[in-house]
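Q: My labmate handed me this sequence with no annotations at all. I'd like to see what the chain might look like in three dimensions before we decide whether it's worth expressing. Could you predict it?
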Amino acid sequence: MFYVVVLAMVAAFLALRLYSVLGRRTGAEPRPIVRPADDRVSLTLPRAAEPVPEPREMSPKPIEARAEQGLRAIVAGEPSFDVGRFVEGAQGAYRLTLEAFWRGDLEALTDLTTPAVRDEFAAAITARAAAGETLDNRLVRIDRAQIVESQVAGREARITVRFDADIAAVTRNAEGQVIAGTLTDAVETHDLWTFARTLKSADPNWKLADTDEA
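A: Here is what I predict for the chain of 214 residues:
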């Protein structure tokens, strides 16, 4: 009888140790990430070095009807093109381009934009520097990224994406004093950015070719 009691105590002790190591499921644990069977890299824009802000209320459909015909032409010219990954990459490019412009990084803008757009950004950066002003801006979130237009002319493909975002913007003078904006209140912005790329080219990256207000 003594040995039975001892064995029961040992079993209880081991059960408690197992419980303390593994814990118990509460129903709130994160689900495992399920990766697609075909995880090939499609042609997308460069990804941000840090996570892109999660959209608050993304459109249930990332494509407007008027853009569908152009996208079909792009897929016909390059079957590996993936709309979902393009939209994800476009959000990353939106963040990277804005941050490069805000800090006056022309080298980064050269990699992200066409020469014409880079020159426009460069002119604005030069004027800002001449005035002794700096931007202390922050992309708070992207509420929507939706393809609104697309077309193919020869091998040149162009896709226009509408971005609805919140940006905290501050302009400082040479003394570091705030002369415009505030970091406590985000401003709603609505942009139309057009990305371009030559289909079947060796360069897989899309570059910003035009900007406008939505």
